[in-house]
Specification:
The complex is a heterodimer of chains A (about 260) and B (about 300).
Chain A lengths: L4 H8 L7 H8 L1 E5 L12 E8 L2 E8 L5 H6 L7 H16 L4 E7 L6 H5 L2 H14 L4 E10 H5 L6 E5 L3 E3 L3 H8 L6 H8 L3 H7 L4 E3 L10 H19 L4 H13 L2
Parallel strand pairs in A: 3-4, 4-5, 5-6, 5-7, 6-8
Antiparallel strand pairs in A: 1-2, 2-3
Chain B lengths: L10 E3 L7 H4 L14 E3 L6 E3 H6 L14 H8 L6 E3 L3 E3 L8 H12 L5 E8 L2 E8 L10 H17 L3 E7 L7 H20 L4 E9 L1 H4 L8 E4 L10 H8 L10 H6 L5 E2 L2 H14 L5 H5 L1
Parallel strand pairs in B: 7-8, 8-9, 9-10, 10-11
Antiparallel strand pairs in B: 1-5, 2-3, 4-6, 6-7
The chains are: A alpha/beta (about 260), B alpha/beta (about 300).
The structure holds zinc ion.
């Protein structure tokens, strides 16, 4: 049975769906979380740190939804402030220094819209990540696990390889926001979801993502191990491939990947 | 595999709306952002101003209010006369999502504005110094960035990198072109990549943020300038003020997200009034001109 784009939007937002930390726990060993952007404060909407992928040290960065209401509030429903993106960039530069690949898990409705976020330069923070990730001299792999909302998602999405889970969505804006801008009616979100072409299948067809991670019937939470094994396989195969390239070759490929969109 | 079909470029070219060179200098009756009457009311102070006087004063009111200007008017204000050579004039979008109603609306807007999309790019001189220049036009789909603007920008940065020339971009944008969905989002990464390459080559990039600069444009090439200038009073931000008010459920303070606010918070180098803009850019280009060091230090 085929799910509609709107079914997928609802599925991607289910509270029971595995979050960034769940992936980190199952895929990596010895994860050490590192906090703060060294400039303003710690943003709990993004989790970052170092761990082992098999025997290889890697840097992991994940947008993190809460697994209950209380955690969700402390993580700002996975809507990062500028300091979250700056922490992510700090850890990526650290990864570059120590030749560690970077693995990103994307799951956000979007970058946070608020007074503090604007005062501290949300636009500047995202822009800087886009430019710096493009030039980062170490492999980057990004996986959209649930929601990939707007520039807030893209700021962890400039990568050599990009995956989406089968029922994940990735879009310019939430269907609700899109409907209210284009149809002047937020309740037309379902129509918007159809018109926007935001599913993993759409993006794969467009050549924007490199692969789709299959989910069990009903969604990733029904057999999470099955999902993580595929993610692990994809990361393993990609790292093997990327590490055969010289850094300059890899960067040129990364550039062309986006240049041709 | 069907997937390869979509690897084709998402833009196409059109020959329909080719502008003639004389249009670049702009005619008195072709000023879309100032009403056609003899008098114009200033939204800043409410005074009535002679329209002719307003055009002579760089479309700035005595109170400092900057009326929006078209891309062609901007080029006329900034570049040395008869030095502009436009690039990729005919480049337009291919409507990558096949979005309902978009193709028709595009043609209508192209006819109305005389523009092919919301950005003019090219090469010219400012105070005698050669530079690449891109100017966005907010009258075209709110200056929103889709694949055409992304592609035109990239070609300009790449050409400037190849020819070792600076780039100046005037931003004016409501954000992403919604009708191009994920393709529009990806332009942010694509353009930032071209900016980064230009920067890595040690070349100068100046952005001038004009009213309004928001969304995906702010969160990509607008904020990546080596030097970021802004026009007085320009609205500059990531999220639009209405979205923020809805999100936090409170009114925003006076002056929030205006150029002066960004200067105060450290995100803009300098606010420049229109009468000084050309000379300021000229000075900055001069300051970055490659020196013959043996001459300079001997
Ligand atoms: Zn006035």
């Amino acid at each position: 049975m085929d799910l509609t784009p709107w079914d997928k939007v609802k599925l991607a937002r289910m509270p029971i769906r595995p979050t960034g930390l769940d992936y980190i726990e199952l895929i990596f060993k010895g994860f050490v979380e590192l906090h703060g952007d060294r400039l303003y404060r710690e943003d709990r909407a993004i989790v970052g740190g170092i761990g082992f992928f098999n025997d290889l040290p890697v840097t992991i960065i994940a947008q993190q939804k809460g697994r209950n209401t209380k955690e969700n509030i402390s993580r700002n429903f996975s809507m990062p402030h500028p300091e979250g993106y700056r922490k992510a960039l700090r850890l990526m530069k650290q990864a570059e220094k120590f030749n560690r690949p970077v693995i990103c898990f994307i799951d956000t409705p979007g970058a946070f819209c608020g007074i503090g976020a604007e005062e501290r330069g949300q636009g500047e923070a995202i822009a800087t990540n886009l430019a710096e990730m493009m030039m980062l001299r170490t492999p980057i792999i990004s996986v959209v696990i649930s929601e990939g909302g707007s520039g807030g998602a893209l700021a962890l999405g400039v990568a050599d390889k990009i995956y989406m889970l089968e029922n994940a969505i990735y879009s310019i804006l939430s269907p609700e926001g899109f409907a209210s801008i284009l149809y002047k009616d937020a309740s037309k979100a379902e129509t918007a979801a159809n018109d926007m072409k935001l599913t993993a299948q759409d993006l794969y067809q467009f050549g924007i993502i490199d692969g789709i991670i299959k989910e069990p019937a009903g969604g990733a939470h029904n057999d999470f191990e099955y999902v993580t094994l595929q993610v692990k396989d994809a990361i393993g195969a990609d790292l093997k491939e990327l590490m055969t390239l010289s850094v300059d070759e890899m960067l040129e490929k990364r550039y062309q990947k986006f240049r041709n969109i | 595999m069907s997937r390869n079909l979509f690897k084709a470029k998402q833009y196409a070219t059109t020959k329909v709306y080719r502008s003639r060179p004389q249009e670049l200098r702009g005619s008195e009756e072709d000023k879309p952002n100032v009403p056609q009457g003899i008098m114009t009311k200033c939204p800043g102070c409410g005074k009535l101003i002679y329209t002719k006087l307003l055009i002579k004063s760089h479309k700035t009111c005595e109170c400092g209010y900057c009326f929006r200007v078209s891309a062609n008017e901007r080029l006329e204000m900034i570049l040395d006369e008869d030095t502009f050579v436009e690039m990729d004039h005919q480049l337009t979008t291919r409507d990558p999502l096949n979005f309902p109603g978009y193709a028709d609306k595009l043609v209508k807007t192209q006819t109305q504005t005389g523009l092919v999309d919301g950005l003019v790019t090219g090469r010219g001189l400012i105070c005698g110094y050669p530079t690449y220049i891109g100017v966005m036009d907010a009258s075209f789909f709110m200056g929103s960035m889709g694949t055409a603007i992304g592609e035109k920008l990239c070609r300009m940065y790449e050409k400037a990198t190849h020819e070792r020339l600076p780039v100046i971009v005037f931003t004016a944008s409501g954000g992403a072109r919604m009708q191009e969905g994920i393709f529009s989002l990806m332009q942010m990464a694509k353009v930032s990549a071209a900016v980064a390459k230009h920067s890595q080559a040690g070349l100068l990039y100046i952005t001038v943020l004009t009213d309004p600069t928001t969304g995906g444009v702010t969160a990509s090439f607008a904020m990546l300038g080596d030097i970021i200038l802004a026009e007085p009073g320009a609205l500059i931000g990531f999220a639009g003020p209405r979205v923020i008010e809805q999100t936090i459920g409170q009114k925003l303070p006076e002056g929030f997200q205006r150029a002066e606010f960004l200067l105060e918070h450290g995100f803009v180098d300098k606010i420049v009034t229109r009468d000084k803009l050309k000379n300021t850019l000229g000075s900055l280009l001069k300051l970055h001109k490659k020196h013959e060091y043996d001459v300079t230090y001997n």
